Amino acid sequence: MLNDSFRYQNGELTCDGVPLREIAAAQGTPTYVYSANRLIQNAQRLQQAFAPLGATLHYSLKANNNLAIIRLLAGLGLGMDAVSAGEIYRAQQAGVDPSHIVFAGVGKTREELTYALQVGVGWFNVESHSELQLLNQLAEELKKRPSVALRLNPDVQAKTHHHIATGHFGAKFGMSADTIAHILAHRHETPYLNIHGLHVHIGSQLGDVDETVEAVRRAQQLAALYPDLRTLNIGGGFPVRYVENDEYPQPEHFAEALAPVLNGWQVMMEPGRSIVADAGVLLVSVLYLKDQARQHFAITDGSMTELIRPALYEAVHPILPMKNAPVSQEMIVVGPVCESTDVLNRGAMLPTLQAGDLLAVMLAGAYGMVMA
Length: 372
Fold this sequence. Notes:
Layout: E1 6-9, E2 12-15, E3 18-19, H1 20-27, E4 31-34, H2 36-49, E5 56-60, H3 67-75, E6 79-82, H4 85-93, E7 101-103, H5 110-119, E8 123-126, H6 129-142, E9 147-151, H7 177-185, E10 194-199, H8 209-223, E11 231-233, H9 251-258, E12 266-269, H10 273-276, E13 280-292, E14 295-300, H11 309-313, E15 319-321, E16 329-334, E17 343-350, E18 358-361
Helix pairs in contact: 5-6, 8-9
């Protein structure tokens, strides 16, 4: 899965024109490499697609919280979406104004809420009635009045891997429509909170635009009685093609479908994977080769401790050699961890290898180093 930034030039795999073997020689392996040019292309594509909606983009730090990446995206005008006090801190270290940070997450601690209030985070996406009550109490103590969006669980089953579907009633995320309706009808009980938004996010790697539209409509139905409730955070989840035969709707398809529905609304978004996934690779070195039970194994110094997605989700990341050579065999590329799940790719089509060769695990920019 090559692109404008990661491609073969003069037979060598490069990142923005720099041979990846040179980076590996300087830094060692395993190591992550990111393309600034690809990050800019991806971010600007989303900005352009959702410009007709006037959408405000907040990059989802849980996808990749590398400081250089945060600085780059902030420089493009993106805010940040954080799910921990640590991510809020990293965003600030990268120069992000706290008022441009959205604090989300289903399990915010008292200490994290206090910290977020103290630094002046722009929005809180609240996931439960009890969290709302705690936030109101802390806001009173600190003499703050933060902006709050209530996260709706719309009970929409997204067409995606079951581990990353978040908008159905079997998931821990958000609140039911009945709970949110009760909160909205009793906003006077939380006088230290400015509740003027709703949040809905049904999952990652979304395979159907209609499910997102339906989730948005259900949120709008809740807001219908309240003219001051016109901010809607639609989350992210825009999919990325990890293998050639993946078929997913493009960001433009989501934007086109949502434009007539969201006319007149203040729209916020939290993309992550769609910005960084194909802007990063993991470089690994082959340690040993062996044949066993009619299978060909390449044992590398990269493992599930660097990239857990294949073990956790059975995710497939293409693996490419440094030299653009003809494919000769299907190989199982594994790491050195004492777990049978420590597999980077079970069916990598590769040329003849030898110990010491370098490989690039592609599309490793999202949920890679951040989960290591």
